[in-house]
Every structure is written in structure tokens, then in C-alpha cells.
Write a structure and sequence with these properties.
alpha+beta, 4-stranded antiparallel β-sheet, 2 helices, 68 residues, 35% helix
Length: 68
């Protein structure tokens, strides 16, 4: 199956790319790895069946976890 990854700065798409995956577990792993690579940005992933996104960038989540 195909997933479209979008890297966002605010509402602006700064980069997008497609990747293939076979299982949802693999898609979740690709999503988390992409969030680490693009740590300062929001990453969204669209497939024919679902959308994955996070409300904060990976870097913001890391800062919040250190603060608590």
C-alpha cells in the first residue's frame, strides 16, 4: 500500500514524499521515524484508509517530556 507523507511548517507543506508499506505496524514505525527525522516540523501521513498526524512536532514533545 502507498502512504503520502507531508512535512508541515504551520499550514505550509515544506516537503512531501511517498512510501510503500505492507502492514499498519510498519506504517506506524515509518511515521515515528519520519517524525524523528523531521523533528522541528509536523508530519502527516495519508493513506487510502487513514490519516496519521500529531498535534506537536517530535522536538516539542521531547521538550514537554523533559519539563515534566
Amino acid at each position: 500500500m502507498k502512504a503520502i507523507f507531508r512535512v508541515l511548517k504551520g499550514q505550509e507543506v515544506v516537503f512531501s514524499y511517498e512510501m510503500e508499506f505492507n502492514q499498519v505496524k510498519e506504517l506506524n514505525e515509518l511515521f515515528q521515524e519520519s517524525r524523528k527525522v523531521w523533528a522541528e516540523y509536523i508530519v502527516e501521513v495519508d493513506t487510502d484508509y487513514m490519516t496519521l498526524s500529531a498535534s506537536h512536532s517530535y522536538a516539542e514533545e521531547a521538550k514537554m517530556s523533559l519539563a515534566s
